[in-house]
Every structure is written in C-alpha cells, then in structure tokens.
Amino acid sequence: MTTSDAPRSPRVSIRPATLADAATLTELGERTFRDTFAAENTPENVEAFLASHYSRALQEEELREPRNLYLLAEVDGVPAGFALLCDGAREPSVRAERPVNLSRLYVDRAFLGAKVGAALMRRCLDDARRRGHDVLWLGVWERNTRARAFYTRWGFIEVGEMRFVLGTDPQRDLVLALAL
Prior knowledge:
There is one protein chain. By secondary structure, this protein is an alpha+beta fold. 33% of the residues lie in helices and 33% in strands. It has a 7-stranded mixed beta sheet with strand order 1-2-3-4-5-7-6, sandwiched between helices. A hairpin with a 2-residue loop joins strand 6 (157-166) and strand 7. The mean pLDDT is 94.
C-alpha cells in the first residue's frame, strides 16, 4: 500500500459559531444531549430540559451574548460537536481571578473516537488563555463517567459540587477546574 492508498484521517476544524449556525447548534445540541443522558433519565425530564435550553431562539440569544464563545467542530464540513465558553460565570468553589466556564462540550455520537472532543478542548484552552483567563471550570454529572474520564485526562481536578436540575430532577454535578 502506498501513502496515497492509506486511509485518510478525518479533518477536524473548529470555528466560532455565528447566528447562521443557530439551527445547527439547536439540532446538534438536542441530539447529543439525548444520546448522552436519555438512557439514565426519564423522557419527561430530558424533554423539559431540552425545551428550556435548546430552542433556536435560545441558541441565537447565547450566540449574541458578547461574553460567550460558541465553537463549532466540523469533520470534513459536517457538524460534529460544539463547545460553549461563558465568561463571567462564577462558582464559589472555583478559586480564580479570571475564571471562564466551559458550559458545554458535546460530540455527536457518529464522531466519537475521531478526536473531535480533543480538538474542541485544545481550542477552548487556547482561547481561554488568549483572553487572559486563569482557570477553566465546568460542571459534570457525577454519573457521566465517560466525560469525567475525558476531563481527568486533560488535568481537571474536582474542586466542589453544584446542583443541576434536569426537568424536575435535582442532580449532583461535580465542579472541575484546570489552572491555565
């Protein structure tokens, strides 16, 4: 087999999302959230959360917020994941002068294992540093072992916990932080 015959690795590109991406982010957000959490939660609670967090109007509002940075990952031009950095969000257990919250980082199931999550995380870290933040923090559901392992590999440490309400179900999220 020659080099030109070798299987091609998918090309992951990351770019800031724009208002034109609102429908894509809505659909991708709903799908990845369901894929990640539907099996361990009631359909009613999942649907209530999606209705309150993933409408097109809400995505447009988040995209317009100047303190937010929405990143869209594409593999060979196909939307594959996204991340949302929120400047100004505070959590008492996070000790920092200029923290930034990684509010969302999701990868479409079809692209798991294609290094989309790693590309998004690298970009989030680069952008957070470039913007002068000293800590990147996030909340992760205590039962989401895949995500917890991912964040641990990146060096995040547990610094606290917070309540996350999914529909009507109060859940425990771990607060993880990474010094930049």
